[in-house]
Write a structure and sequence with these properties.
By secondary structure, this protein is of the alpha+beta class. It folds into two domains: about 110 residues, no CATH class; about 375 residues, Methylamine Dehydrogenase, Chain H, CATH 2.130.10. The protein has 13 helices and 29 strands. Helix 4 crosses helix 7 and helix 6 packs across helix 7. The longest helix is centred in the first third of the chain and has 34 residues. The radius of gyration is 57 Å and the shape is elongated. It starts with a helix and ends with a helix. InterPro entries: Dynein_IC (IPR050687), WD40/YVTN_repeat-like_dom_sf (IPR015943), WD40_repeat_dom_sf (IPR036322), WD40_rpt (IPR001680).
Length: about 675
């Protein structure tokens, strides 16, 4: 065991010695490479041996030549050697010194040969200029057979000059660049100024969030620029000249301002319009589906236009189907509501851009209690800013009340039916509106032409639903719009006109109505037979078969017909919409499918219009902008069947309210109508 250990130790010691020897050789090689030429490192030993061999052969011959040389000849030969070398005297003298010193130390060797060897070795080792000159001089002298004084022998043959050595550096040889590199800049780069401890940030590609923020910024700023560019102001107006009498007087006539249209609305029809009460310059327009398939993939649209930007909408909202009703929330500046053809109610937020933030669930039955299953025809907001509700109606006769905080299920739902109808008890609600005085009741216009009054809650002697005691009979075609008289904002009306409402119909007429009073005791006894309610205390057993009941009591009318106070029948096409002016109590406007806009002032005339205008295409909807008593509404928006929204300016003299005078005149006119 000890022998094995000793053997291992011996091998280890040998390995250590080999490693040290290898390191020593590597160290010597590096030193030689650093000190001089590579050729000297590999060939100096052989050159020294050759010089020693030649030196051993030269002394006898040089000695014979030196005996026959004279002192003067030696000096002349030294001068000739210096001249042949082509060096300066200082260089020759500097080269003679090492030659003399080496001649004294070498046995049997002449000074010329010793000097030649010394200078040649000095040149290959990288000696100074003086050594190079001495080597050249002594080499020539030795070749000519000089002696101690340096005098050449006339008998010695002259050897040819030694060719110059071409030395190469063992490095990678590359082509020199044609252009010299630019000098370094005196000013340091920004990266050089940074502390080495601070890591430099490399550029990273923008993330999706940064891209979205940048797109939103560009979109919003471009809208601001467009508003500024679309501002209409004539900077060339000359106030010193008399205006031209032939120029149109826009102060007394109804004139077109501009048209709101975008290529996205091509082949679509405007189905609803509503101005924003919080932002008076914003107008919400609902559109149907495109009659020609498009690539944008949008079925229904709601565009929020800014009347200061004509080229594109401020916001564009998407819907799964046609949007049949639209409402700008009067209590929230960012919310817009829409009723869809599939029965859903959609809520869009301008802060969320395109898609709805809330929506009602899809329903497949009107009595399921989850919402509408037919196209939504009307949307109304009732209440105040602190407590408000949304009332909606659909074509299947379902009226729902919603809370804006929860659209998953309606708070109330009433299915309107008419059991006295000879064909069907279903009521197709084409339009709905709530009186400004009492939000617990409402009026509906049906697709058969009749108008009904209805209640949202049960009352003493009256059930929730249609009030069949009074049927407003006046139109022979579907009712397209029913609108109640608006109450003035911010103050109490001098005269209460909340019981007035207007209706437009496809029978080419518009009608003015007044709400009927409560039924008398005789009428109540008759109406109690056909109240649409399931409570046995209200209904009688004879209401199970209305047709049989009617034939058995032919002398007793099942309802009391109510006729309109006034009819306006000057139209030449379907009357698609009618709206009261927000401030003036006697002014209203109507639009027909022929593209004609007509304005009436009941205080002036019940038969003639006060202003008319012709649009380039058929009209479907109209809406007055919101105004105040001090600045009444003077703009009206018209939605056309070709997807364009036309803005018209109404003369301010026509809609300005002169205190309570207009209200009192309206009251006088209504008394004359009975």
């Amino acid at each position: 065991m000890s022998a094995r250990r000793a053997e291992i130790e011996a091998k280890r010691a040998k390995l250590v010695e080999l490693r040290k020897a290898r390191e020593e050789r590597a160290k010597q090689s590096r030193e030689k490479l650093v000190e001089g030429d590579v050729h000297e490192h590999f060939g100096v030993s052989k050159r020294e041996e050759l010089d020693a061999f030649l030196a051993s052969l030269l002394p006898s011959k040089e000695k014979e030549l030196a005996d026959g040389a004279a002192a003067g000849t030696a000096e002349a030969g030294s001068a000739v050697g210096i001249a042949e070398a082509g060096n300066a005297p200082k260089t020759a003298e500097a080269g003679n010194a090492p030659r003399t010193a080496e001649a004294g130390g070498a046995a049997g060797t002449t000074e010329a040969g010793s000097a030649a060897r010394t200078t040649e070795a000095g040149n290959e080792a990288g000696t100074t200029e003086a050594g190079s000159a001495a080597r050249t001089t002594q080499a020539d002298s030795a070749a000519a057979g000089t002696h101690k004084s340096g005098a050449p022998s006339p008998l010695a043959p002259r050897s040819p000059p030694r060719p110059a050595k071409i030395l190469y550096s063992k490095q990678v040889q590359t082509d020199e660049p044609l252009l010299e590199p630019a000098p370094p800049s005196p000013t340091p780069s920004p990266s050089a100024l940074l502390s080495p401890r601070v890591p430099q940030r490399t550029p990273t590609p923008p993330s999706e969030e940064l891209g979205k923020e940048y797109a939103d910024f560009v979109y919003s700023r471009s809208l601001v620029i467009e508003r500024v560019l679309d501002e209409e102001y004539d900077v060339l107006t000359d106030y010193t000249t008399v205006p031209d009498a032939q120029a149109p007087d826009h102060a007394t006539t109804l004139h077109h301002v501009h048209t709101l249209f975008d290529t996205t609305m091509e082949t679509r029809a405007v189905t609803a319009l509503d101005w924003s009460a919080m932002h008076p310059e914003l107008l919400a327009a609902a559109y149907s589906h495109a009659s020609v398939p498009s690539n944008n993939g949008l079925e229904g649209l709601v565009a929020v236009w800014n009347r200061h930007v004509k080229e594109r909408p401020e916001f564009l909202f998407a819907a799964p189907t046609d949007v049949t009703a639209v409402l700008a929330s009067p209590f929230h500046p960012n919310l817009f509501l829409g009723g869809a053809a599939n029965g859903q109610i959609l809520v869009w937020d301008t802060r969320n851009r395109r898609l709805p933030v809330q929506r009602t669930p899809l329903s497949f039955s009107a009595g399921a209690g989850t919402g509408h299953c037919a196209p939504v025809t009307s949307l109304c907001m009732t209440g105040s800013a602190q407590a408000h509700t949304l009332v909606s109606a659909s074509l299947d006769g379902l009226v729902c009340t919603w809370s804006m905080d929860m659209l998953a299920m309606p708070q109330e739902s009433i299915l309107l039916t008419n059991p006295m109808h000879p064909r069907s008890a279903d009521v197709g609600v084409a339009t709905l509106d709530v009186p400004s005085r009492d939000a617990t009741q409402f009026f509906v216009g049906t697709d058969e032409g009749n108008v009904f009054h209805a209640a949202r809650y049960d009352r003493a002697g009256i059930a929730a639903g249609l009030d069949l005691a009074h049927i407003y009979v006046g139109h022979a075609a579907p009712v397209t719009r029913l609108v109640c008289h608006p109450a003035p904002r911010g103050r109490r009306a001098p005269v209460d006109f909340s019981d007035l409402f207007l209706t437009s119909s496809m029978d080419w007429s518009t009608a003015l109505w007044r709400m009927a009073g409560p039924a008398t005791s005789t009428q109540a006894s008759k109406s109690s037979y056909h109240y649409p309610h399931a409570n046995a205390r209200i209904a009688t057993s004879t209401r199970t078969n209305p047709l049989a009941f009617r034939s058995a009591n032919a002398a007793a009318s099942p309802w009391t017909p109510v006729h309109p106070m006034a009819r306006f029948e000057n139209q030449q096409d379907y009357v698609m919409d009618v709206r009261w002016h927000p401030q003036h109590p006697a002014v209203f406007a109507q639009a027909d499918a022929g593209g004609r806009l007509e304005m009436y002032n009941l205080n002036t005339s019940l038969e003639r219009t006060v202003q008319t205008a012709q649009a380039p295409a058929g009209l479907n909807r109209l809406a007055w902008e919101h105004g105040t008593e001090s600045a009444p509404s003077t703009r009206i928006a018209l939605g056309a069947l070709d997807g364009r929204v036309h803005l018209y300016e109404v003369p301010e003299t026509l809609v300005r309210v002169r205190g309570d005078v207009e209200w009192l005149e309206m009251q006088h006119v209504l008394k004359g109508l009975g």
